[in-house]
Design a protein that fits this description.
- The structure is a single chain.
- The chain is of the alpha/beta class.
- The chain has one domain (6-190): Peptidoglycan recognition protein-like (Lysozyme-like, 3-Layer(aba) Sandwich), CATH 3.40.80.10.
- It has helices at 6-11, 59-64, 76-79, 139-155, 164-167, and strands spanning 24-25, 31-33, 42-48, 88-90, 96-98, 104-106, 113-114, 117-118, 124-130, 160-163.
- The strands form three sheets. A six-stranded mixed β-sheet has the order 1-5-4-9-3-10.
- The longest helix has 17 residues, at 139-155.
- It is globular and about 45 Å long.
C-alpha cells in the first residue's frame, strides 16, 4: 500500500490492493503500472458528461471500458477510439464508481505539469465528476468528493488537490467555472490551486 499499513487502509475504507469499499467497482483496461517508488501526492478533479451536458447514462463507464458505441450519438464517433480512464467517478447523486486501483496509473491527465513535474498520471489519482463546464455540480457530489479525498489522504501523502485545467492549462477547462472550490474548504491545505 505504498508504505501505508493495512490498518490505515482499512480505516480509510481502502483495500490493500487499492480498491475503495464504498465504491461500485467497474474494471477499466486503461491503466498501467506507476513508476517504481512513485508516491501518490496529487488529486486531479475532472468533469465529464456523455453525451455532452447530459447526465444519468452509462456512457461514461462505456468510454472507460472501451465499449462506447460510436453510432449511439454523433459525438461518440469522435471519442469512441480513445483509451482513457479515471480512478473514480462521482455521479450526480453522489454514487461512487471506481475503475482503476489507486495503486495503478489511470489514464486521466494526459500531457500535464504540476509543481515542477510532468506526467501527472505517474503520481496522481484522477476523480471525475459527472458534470460539465456550463452547469453547477450537485451538493451530493461535493460531499462525496471531500469524503473521498479525506479517505485517500489517510493512505497516501497527498499534498495538492487541483483541477484538470490547472495541470493542462490551455488544453483542458474542467472542472470548469461552475465548480465551487469553496466547497472543498474542509480539505484545508490540500487545496493546491492558486486562488
Amino acid at each position: 500500500m505504498n508504505g501505508m499499513g493495512e490498518d490505515r487502509a482499512a480505516a480509510a475504507g481502502l483495500s490493500i490492493d487499492g480498491w475503495m469499499s464504498a465504491a461500485r467497482r467497474i474494471d477499466s483496461p486503461n491503466f498501467d503500472d506507476r513508476p517504481a517508488g512513485e508516491a501518490i501526492s496529487l488529486v486531479v478533479v475532472h468533469a465529464i458528461s456523455l453525451p455532452p451536458a447530459q447526465f444519468g447514462s452509462d456512457d461514461i463507464a462505456r468510454l472507460f471500458t472501451n465499449s462506447l458505441d460510436p453510432d449511439a450519438h454523433p459525438y461518440f464517433s469522435r471519442i469512441s477510439g480513445l483509451r482513457v480512464s479515471a480512478h473514480f467517478l462521482i455521479r450526480r447523486d453522489g454514487a461512487l464508481i471506481q475503475f482503476v486501483s489507486c495503486l495503478q496509473r489511470a489514464w486521466h491527465a494526459g500531457v500535464s505539469f504540476w509543481n515542477g513535474r510532468e506526467r501527472c498520471n505517474d503520481f496522481s489519482i484522477g476523480i471525475e465528476l459527472e458534470g460539465c463546464d456550463e452547469l453547477p455540480f450537485e451538493v451530493a457530489q461535493y460531499l462525496r468528493l471531500v469524503d473521498l479525498i479525506q479517505s485517500l489522504s489517510v493512505c497516501y501523502p497527498i499534498n495538492s488537490v487541483v483541477g484538470h485545467s490547472d495541470i493542462a492549462p490551455g488544453r483542458k477547462t474542467d472542472p470548469g467555472q461552475c465548480f465551487d472550490w469553496q466547497r472543498l474548504a474542509p480539505l484545508g491545505a490540500l487545496l493546491g490551486r492558486a486562488r
